[in-house]
């Protein structure tokens, strides 16, 4: 499957979305892009660049699990 990004004029946007909705999800899937998507994409691109340049800091699995457990506990306490 391929991805195609389009800029669509507001005047015809509803018509294009209506047309795309006539296809099944296995044929065409409308992906809504928002600012959070672009922020996440930029963050991941920076992280990948750090890895490729050899500047990334990695941690052991045990440390990652410990940090995750602590984050979960902090969130549970605030609920």
Q: How would you describe the overall organization of this protein?
A:
Helix content is 61%, strand content 0%. The chain has one domain. The mean pLDDT is 92. The protein is elongated, with a radius of gyration of 20 Å. With 79 residues, the chain is mostly helical. It has helices spanning 10-21, 35-53, 61-77.
Compressed to H and E, one letter per element, the order equals HHH
Helix run count: 3
Provide the residue-averaged pLDDT: 92
- Helix and strand content put the structural class at mainly alpha
Basic shape: elongated
Taking the sheet with the most strands, its summary is: none
Q: First CA to last CA: what distance? A: 41 Å
Strand content: under 5%
In angstroms, what is the radius of gyration?
Answer: 20 Å
As a percent range, the share of helical residues equals 55-70%
Number of strands: 0
Low-pLDDT regions: none
Number of domains: 1
Question: Concise description?
Answer:
The chain has 79 residues and is mainly α. Helices cover 61% and strands 0% of the residues. It contains 3 helices and no strands.
Give the SSE layout.
Blueprint: H1 10-21, H2 35-53, H3 61-77
Summarize this structure as a short list of keywords or feature phrases.
79 residues, mainly alpha, elongated
């Amino acid at each position: 499957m391929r991805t195609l990004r389009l800029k669509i004029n507001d005047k015809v946007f509803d018509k294009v979305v209506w047309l795309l909705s006539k296809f099944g999800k296995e044929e065409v899937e409308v992906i809504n892009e928002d600012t959070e998507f672009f922020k996440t994409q930029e963050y991941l691109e920076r992280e990948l660049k750090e890895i490729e340049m050899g500047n990334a800091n990695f941690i052991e699995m045990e440390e990652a699990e410990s940090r995750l457990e602590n984050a979960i506990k902090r969130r549970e306490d605030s609920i």
